[in-house]
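=== RUN LOG ===
request id: a7f3
mode: sequence -> structure
chains: 1
length: 419
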Amino acid sequence: MDKLILEGGCPLQGEVTISGSKNAALPILLACMLNSEEVKLQGVPDLLDIQTTVRLLQLLGCQVEQNGSALTIRAEHELHHEAPYDLVRTMRASVLCLGPLLARIGRATVALPGGCAIGSRPVDLHLSALEKMGAAFVIEGGDIKGSCPRLRGAHISFDFPTVGGTENLLMAAVLAEGETILENAAKEPEIQDLANFLNACGARIEGQGTSILRIQGVPGLQACRYTVLPDRIEAGTYLIAAAITNGDLTLRNCPVWAMDAVIYKLREMGVDIAGDAGTDSLTIRPNGEIHGVDISTQPYPGFPTDMQAQFMALMSVAQGSGLITETIFENRFMHAQELMRLGAKIKITGNSALVRGGQNLSGATVMASDLRASASLVLAGLAARGTTTIRRIYHLDRGYEHMETKLSRLGARVWREQE
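=== RESULT ===
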């Protein structure tokens, strides 16, 4: 198992190119099972979750060829129906197999998913919605077993805008008989990207970017070339890396249009950011003192829960105090204790964290508990005096492409060692 070692105090300088989005690439890869013709994808990031998904596609009967960030997927033969626990235990996105498998071959056996320990992400919303389309499920031996003669279009209203549920039902509806309407659908850019990809394959989806999606089922999909959306969470993380080190950094291949809430909060903190939604680059420059703000995580287009931990690290060194309220996941403050080991002053009360800024962080050995927590510890380590060692960084490798390499090119002193 690897660990990451950082020596803080180096302002980041230069340019960084943002990789393709993990949260867009995963459902797009699984959606390739719907298509019996060849799909060519560009901009697929080199991440542990992507590697797991590729192995899963191959196990299910797809042919996958990879050349850097370019993947070619063929699902022309009869697919297998079982996604076993040994393969999917580290990745919650594995439940997104259900919709494509049920739509393509009428049955699916998917192990209950694993992944980050950041709270409950129940799959019951997925199952109850798919049942309205004609599927039947049993949970047996830790597996979800589903079957249906053929999915039928249905009118589905989600209790809340679930990202995974919207993606699963969107994929299922593409080959279903008749029309499917999804109300209170999630509006995240990654869902828009999934819908755009499916439409490029010949699907008939309307309403992406809104809370109502209309899908007219089609008999089959066609060959397609598609480039995955850049990663807005990686982009936000590098903006904070520049801010926390008082650096001067330009981000290229950046989905600025999808980052309004993050950019707004950084500017509210006093960070100097140049760029707008009509561009694909952002530049962040040193601007003297930054100060804490209040943040409440919300579904898109609100402030993303996936940026909460990174902002906590930045607010620890900003002037004044700020309150972070987590409304999406009930167990997503595990990074706070590790940040406190570095000198942060944080008080947790229920689903809120009061961050008292102005702290001088000092290096220590810390433990990553989940993907975004690991990013927050890297950011704090960049700002801390002395040496910070981050253990269990396999979480980081699940969602950030070659992070230590990118940071090193920007002037950070960071390297990887084996435990």
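=== NOTES ===
Residues 115-120 have pLDDT under 50 and may be disordered.
The CA atoms of residues 21 and 231 lie 4 Å apart.
=== END ===
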